[in-house]
Specification:
Rossmann fold; single chain; Rossmann-like_a/b/a_fold; disulfide bond; Elongation Factor Tu (Ef-tu), domain 3; about 20% strand; tRNA-5-taurinomethyluridine 2-sulfurtransferase; about 25% helix; alpha/beta; tRNA-binding; 5-stranded parallel beta sheet
């Protein structure tokens, strides 16, 4: 059987916003299975114009894999083995999505794998000495060839750029710290991609996310509610990144790994003899490949020299490249001696970063903040808003919290005040807060710039006055930083909590 596969595409032309018809035509051509080449001359001309080649992939026999003839039924419990389904599987080339594909295949479903390829515009070519996705695609193809599953490549450059990357850039320009992974799931993987394949009549779209989905038992999957729950592996759990999906999106999804731990996934990968069984998990932001996040920000926002001031004293400590390179709670990239130093506040208007060595001291922790852009997976706020749990970042940690919905004024979106029952200092505007009741994820909102009356980290009057100086060259040279005594700089409990949060922040900004 022949099938179409987009292999050589002039994306700067094909995916241009000025050519929306080309983009639609591309999807209809790249995702359509044909039993024979099209005979219509206009279709053939269209194919030539778009540089899409119709090729017949090499015929490969499924590899004999007797060592996985039997898989513990518990591992298949999130793959709907009792039904025979037509499933579109998102395949990245990593271990998690590969095991998810194999579990669905073993459960007897008819699977088609899709690799989402995101290319930048021409001015990004000199960022890479080689294409960072070649290796991913090679592994994805090898995994599919093992069991004879067809693999399609889908290009979503325009959608990704317009809905994720440009939003990311604008948020950093405004001094906020957005989460691209949440947006990618909502707008690309389970947004633009599902729209592109909607005419192919798949029963579900599956991925290698660590989350559990409970669908209605009704014969019509559109009846009843689908419930997003925590995965078996609380450390790897990814419900935080899925918390901004809609109920309509949840109804169409399968997460085969929701019933497994990461260790079990690795064991299965070895048992299945997957080509990528030894491959490490990917880190950083998905569209950047091997590019440092700081390089990406510098290319799109540029650099603008600013000053670093100690929040408590107003002392001039050094200079930085622009406030958009830093997020609240960040430690790496400050290049200051005598630390650890943390970013505690930002003056966006004057391009000033306030830092402190006392970020995790008891009297400066936060318990209250506002969230907006609320989205509830049950399409309405929970009834018991006084007894919830929340995550303010990806990871196994939860806070008990209460939620107070604010009155909606004309033209304004929903917002709420969140009160944590414990202290946290890593609250960065632009990040998401996901809400839970027990194991069930209820939805999420975006942490807003406007804090409650308790305010943020206390910055002294002298520091605020210096930040407003028009001619900062009058400050002269930075002060000599004194090293803190050992007993002062190492409070065991505070340092431990600080390092846990700092690791999360530094992973997020990809080691600036």
């Amino acid at each position: 059987m022949q099938r179409t596969l987009a292999t050589a595409l002039p994306l700067h032309t094909l995916l241009s916003p000025q050519n929306p018809k080309n983009f639609k035509q591309f999807f209809s051509l790249s995702l359509l299975h044909l039993t024979k080449p099209p005979s219509n001359p206009r279709t053939l001309n269209r194919l030539r114009h778009l540089s899409v080649s119709i090729t017949e992939p090499p015929q490969t026999s499924p590899k004999s894999i007797s060592n996985v003839d039997h898989i513990d039924p518990r591992y298949l419990s999130c793959s709907m083995p009792e039904k025979k389904l037509k499933v579109a599987v998102l395949l990245s080339g990593g271990v998690d999505s590969s095991v998810a594909l194999r579990l669905l295949h073993h459960a007897g479903h008819s699977c088609t794998a899709y690799y989402l390829k995101i290319w930048f515009q021409d001015d990004f070519e000199n960022f890479w000495s080689e294409c960072p996705w070649d290796e991913d695609l090679k592994y994805a193809k090898a995994v599919c060839d093992q069991v004879g599953v067809p693999l399609e490549v889908v290009h979503l450059t325009n959608e990704y750029w317009n809905n994720v990357v440009s939003y990311l850039i604008e948020e950093y320009r405004c001094g906020r710290t957005p989460n691209p992974d949440v947006l990618c799931n909502t707008r690309i993987k389970f947004g633009a991609f599902m729209d592109a394949i909607s005419n192919l009549k798949f029963d579900y779209v599956a991925s290698g996310h660590y989350a559990r989905l409970l669908h209605s038992s009704s014969s019509d999957k559109n009846d009843g509610l689908s419930v997003l729950e925590l995965s078996k592996d609380m450390v790897k759990d990814q419900t935080y990144f899925l918390s901004h999906l809609s109920q309509g999106q949840l109804k169409q999804l399968l997460f085969p790994l929701g019933c497994l731990s990461k260790d079990e996934v690795r064991c299965l990968a070895s048992k299945m003899d997957l080509p990528n069984k030894e491959r490490k998990d990917s880190q950083g932001i998905c569209f950047l490949g091997k590019i440092k996040f700081s390089e990406f920000v510098a290319r799109h926002i540029g650099e603008k020299e600013g000053i670093l001031l100690e929040a408590e004293s107003g002392d001039f400590l050094g200079k930085h490249r622009g406030f958009w390179f830093y997020t609240i709670g960040q430690r790496q990239g400050l290049r200051l001696p005598g630390g650890p130093w943390y970013v505690v506040e930002k003056d966006v208007q004057n391009n000033v970063i306030f830092v402190s060595r006392n970020y995790f001291s008891f009297d400066k922790r936060r318990r209250r903040f506002r969230v907006g852009s609320l989205k509830w997976l049950r399409e309405s706020p929970p009834d018991q808003v006084g007894q919830l749990q929340c995550k303010v970042r990806h990871g196994p940690g939860f806070y008990d919290c209460s939620l107070r919905m604010e009155s909606i004024k004309d033209g304004q979106e929903d917002s709420a005040i969140v009160r944590l029952f414990e202290d946290d200092q890593g609250l960065a505007a632009g990040q998401f807060t996901a809400f839970y009741m027990g194991k069930t994820c209820l939805g999420s909102g975006v942490i807003l710039d406007s804090w409650d009356d308790e305010g943020g980290f206390p910055v002294c009057t002298r520091a605020l006055e210096i930040a407003r100086m028009e001619d900062k060259s009058l400050l002269g040279k930075p002060v000599k930083i004194m090293t803190l005594p050992e007993s002062t700089s190492k409070n065991t409990e505070q340092t431990k909590r600080g390092e846990l949060f700092n690791e999360s922040v530094n992973n997020m900004v990809n080691a600036i």
